[in-house]
């Protein structure tokens, strides 16, 4: 049981549905070859973004990594500007300059995503330093995958965040795979992320990252704790990526052997959206018919968004060398 | 008119800017030591203390990313490296984040006004990993501003400008210039070369301490009736090619003297630009810089490893008397900071 309001529960569900159907639309369109950008879909991991970012307030700073669509959308970025970005159009969130791994939407406090491992951690620690200096209640949130624990920058950042007691929330989406390398090849089985993180003086919490209600409730408490000035914290969210590391296919369609179809289908049974959908229906928050109506409505809107994104023009050749320096206009 | 040393000029700019702009914070190793990065942060530390002058752990890469993140949210960080060579650890954040943030989000992300101060070492056997000069690498990647103040005036003036710029700026200072005195004033531009000495017979384009050495060589040459024009390049990225081309059109001779290796260096870039311009030179392009080996420690090897005024003078004469048989012997000219004994 939980103490969440109808508004929060339905809000979580609707955000996850929006993310899932956006990613599925991309997966459906991607093979046509119009989205010429290496794309890392977040299907299966929606509960982390929706659960954590439901705690975001205006003025917080969100940073993400290569698998960033979920966080972009859950911060408030629009599917239309994401589609346009993947299509390389000037109407894209980054003007067609960034592509799938370089998204930004300052209006929704999504400061940017960057695919080099560990960068989101350092950037968020820096934003948190600014908030601490200003003395406000804003926090910075970094999303990253489990391989980021292998990078030196991460531990340098954790150390600085700890000694400076920065208002930063580090969110690890542990999906057990770094590209095609399983976790047990990359970390000593004698140790745990929990021990490592705590040894730096950072509060640590592990949640079921497929359970949006648990992720939201636990991150809500920890976010409030950070806003009160208690220092940095890390949430490790156990979740699973459904599709291939980069691209729209399933691994079994590509004959990859690093994980079995059975393993993927086992996790699909633990679908984060199905989980909350069943809960909402059983608890009487929403009917199955309303769920189906809602899905159709969102799909229809996304179809329209995609067509409008296609209508956005490509950047002009004249714009190619613009915006190298902020000090030079245009 | 005020006369300050290069180090005093950096300190003065820092304190002046921090008084006006409370968002400026300094980060680096040893900033709050009594030695204060060779005196450049001592005064700032005594004025503003640990809330704005942060003695950080050894964490060059993350620190640069943290500075970048802080700059997105209204802080103006100055990251300080006592030697360039330690900054290499931060190249990921410098080249993947700082240099690209504005462009790759089409100007829709927040600005990243991070200033990085980093010092080039030379002399007293500082050796292979305390003497490197990284301007060509940084300038190769579009998006960073890379400047090399050669005088106390620019040491103060360019730092003041960097602290007012919306762009990330890397300031490469030279340890051998720290005690060199000169007039200081207000902010000086972050781009545009300046003519340090006018001349008509040969153009020497120089960076950082090599400007001072080229001026010594040029003074010696003028006693022989040779008029050398010395251009202080000031900014490596963006590079002011026009000022160089205008000079070379007049002198038809070109030498580039740089603090780094000649291979793939400033001289290669400027030489290629002159070639592309179609200007016909009367004598071959000359590039001077560190010899193409890691810097050795032993004094006799160190002496031949780096350019100095004597070498510049000698090569300048060869350039001007090119194809003539007469090449005079060369005197030993004064060396900048040849008596350098540290601190390092």
Name its key features.
heterodimer, A: 330 residues, alpha/beta, two-stranded antiparallel ribbon, 43% helix, 11% strand, B: alpha/beta, Rossmann fold, seven-stranded mixed sheet, 14 strands, globular
Number of helical segments of chain A? 11
Output the strand order for the largest sheet of chain B: 3-2-4-5-7-6-12
The 3D shape of chain B can be described as globular
Number of strands of chain B: 14
Structural class of chain B: alpha/beta
Structure notes:
The complex is a heterodimer of chains A (330) and B (344). Chain A is of the alpha/beta class and 330 residues long. Chain A is built from 11 helices and 8 strands. In chain A, helix 1 packs across helix 3 (69-75), helix 1 (6-29) runs antiparallel to helix 10 and helix 2 packs parallel to helix 3. Chain B is α/β, with parallel strands linked by helices and 344 residues long. Chain B has 2 domains: 2-184, 3-Layer(aba) Sandwich (Rossmann fold); 194-319, Rossmann fold, CATH 3.40.50.920. Chain B contains 14 helices and 14 strands. Chain B has a 7-stranded mixed β-sheet, sandwiched between helices. In chain B, helix 1 (6-20) packs parallel to helix 3 (42-48), helix 4 (60-72) packs parallel to helix 6 (91-98) and helix 11 (241-251) packs across helix 12 (266-277). The longest helix of chain B is centred in the first third of the chain and has 15 residues, at 6-20. Chain B is globular and about 65 Å long. The two termini of chain B are 30 Å apart. The mean pLDDT of chain B is 95. At the A-B interface, helix 5 and helix 6 of A face helix 4, helix 6 and helix 7 of B.
